Request: fold
Amino acid sequence: MRDDLTVRDVSIIGIGQVPVGEHWDRSLRHLAYEAILAAVRDGGIDRIDALYIGNMLSGELNSQEHLGALVADFAGLRGVEAVKVEAACGSGAAALRMGYIAVAGELADVVVVCGVEKMTDTIGDDTTSALAMAADADYEASQGLSFVAINALLMRRYLHEYGFSHSDFAHFTVNAHRNAANNPYAMFRHPVTVEAFRQARMIADPINLLDSSPICDGAAAVVLAPTAWVRGRGRRNVRIAASAIATDSVSLHDRRDPLWLDAVALSAQKAYKQAGVGPQEIDLFELHDAFTIMSALSLEASGFAPRGGGVRLAMEGDIFIGGRIPISTMGGLKARGHPVGATGIYQVVEVVEQLRGEAGANQVGDAHWGMAQNIGGSGATVITTILEGGE
Amino acid sequence: MRDDLTVRDVSIIGIGQVPVGEHWDRSLRHLAYEAILAAVRDGGIDRIDALYIGNMLSGELNSQEHLGALVADFAGLRGVEAVKVEAACGSGAAALRMGYIAVAGELADVVVVCGVEKMTDTIGDDTTSALAMAADADYEASQGLSFVAINALLMRRYLHEYGFSHSDFAHFTVNAHRNAANNPYAMFRHPVTVEAFRQARMIADPINLLDSSPICDGAAAVVLAPTAWVRGRGRRNVRIAASAIATDSVSLHDRRDPLWLDAVALSAQKAYKQAGVGPQEIDLFELHDAFTIMSALSLEASGFAPRGGGVRLAMEGDIFIGGRIPISTMGGLKARGHPVGATGIYQVVEVVEQLRGEAGANQVGDAHWGMAQNIGGSGATVITTILEGGE
Reply:
């Protein structure tokens, strides 16, 4: 993308979310509608130029494609421009990127971006098979590799190469659950101990249940508008300082170095350059902790730790609220939950809460720069968003 | 969207397509790669800022989501911004709209948009169930309505309300097959007669086999760049004069008038306004003839015929090359083929061929304004693109 950006500034002027969980009484479209309604009310807007939906699995799990028109109609927006954007578990932030482009480029003024996923009470394939569609169908899934197993290969290699033990990852989970306890939208609002982490049931060796984010339902939405509209409106402004997508090979075996996520590094570098900041300026980082190993690798490739040093940030408490680089401040994918296509929007909603000073007991002090990073597959699509809080 | 458009002009500087058909020897990613390579060579470009993929069914039929990164990597573009855009059978043109927004808004300079679909040699659900995901899963598909049956309800109502007989629709098919005979990328390159149309096997009464577009594989791609780049380069310029998406209720029963496609009318009106032309200026119209009834309804709501008058344009030969408003000039969905997520890009590629004067035996004389219209579902998402040929 162009370096000489001449586009206008874009702000997030409304946020909405539904509690993550198992919603046996609400359909896909209903979840999306609730999140959109909350965001529209929060933003206080009376017009919408376009609606972009982030979703990965509606076809496979809900036998429903065509979510753009479907959700637009159910949300009372019949007629509006609406499409679905998909980039596996990165679908939410990929849709946000499309909305950002439309507003920054002056093709639209008010865009709503909604991430939604319904993974329970489904009528299609089983969820494990569906999630494997984020991996390479020909070279990974068809060989019997589930998505958890791919991450297990990564974690095993990490333990071997850097000499850590599995329990060194415990504080990623301890931190996430502790923070989720104060988030009314989180799925798992109970703390876990290091001992519980050690004893948890094995899923795909060495990944156990407490390394893993849950299967769940959820929806979150944001309203985007030109920053010039909101300045001076009396509300704390949150500006999108950067939005960057980068890709890598979908299959793990085809990368030059499985323990270095090239697309995380490239996406983060592009975002830092666009925002004019570096990792040292970031006050909190909502990273893609679908598995604890992804947290460590994301911290490293994003520049918060050297190679093999990501897990040390957890061991030493640097990732806690009050630490050097707080992560998963509202529970993360692990404890807030990971409704895959919605996750990227939940992350951004949470960063906005922090930058507005509305994060309650989990407030990061003096938060000015917040970063969210949403990942599709085992690092094949990475969207990094940097937000700046205003006065 | 904004009326006071301040964005820069965008041109299509490269086109590529693979023959539509049953490609038992080529995978989804391979088809996309071939189309992209052809478009990149045609455009003579040496950089790409982003890749947008239009596709509807890869999850359901190929057990593969995450096509953005997958295709980017296979096409030699590892690292590039890449996402999939989905709007049922309108996915191709919806992806084009995202590419147009990125270039028009100056967020990118060179964007490749590829539509791809692999509907044969699949490993997932059956194709009829998969296509029904374009309809409403809760209110249509779960009631046993296939996608053909939904169109059959529309056609039955049309015959009843306006007093036509089924064979009045024959010339939509005769025209499409006649034109496809001269298109090396078309699936059905044989002419059909009115008598053959009358005798064709029934699919869902009153829709028969020759009312219907085929299940097939295909991929097509275009390269977008700022118009300012291509003026004076010696190549005939084709500018995107308008690009507009509109939506309607996904389920047919929920519309105020099933025989008037509101989203077609809204999308066309927006496009006419943006381009500064009306239907009388359009020299050819690549419409969404998934079924003959959709051709009639599209002609009406787009302003080429009054209500109930669309089928007369076929009966009187106005839709033929040389007629008042040529449609399906390279075979249309009916005879070129309808690989659903790719169709919107094939349509645009064909309009570019016409406006460049490269349509061979099917050339529309003095073609200056060409329109393509891609439809998702039974009219729930409609993307209208108007192209202007240069000197």
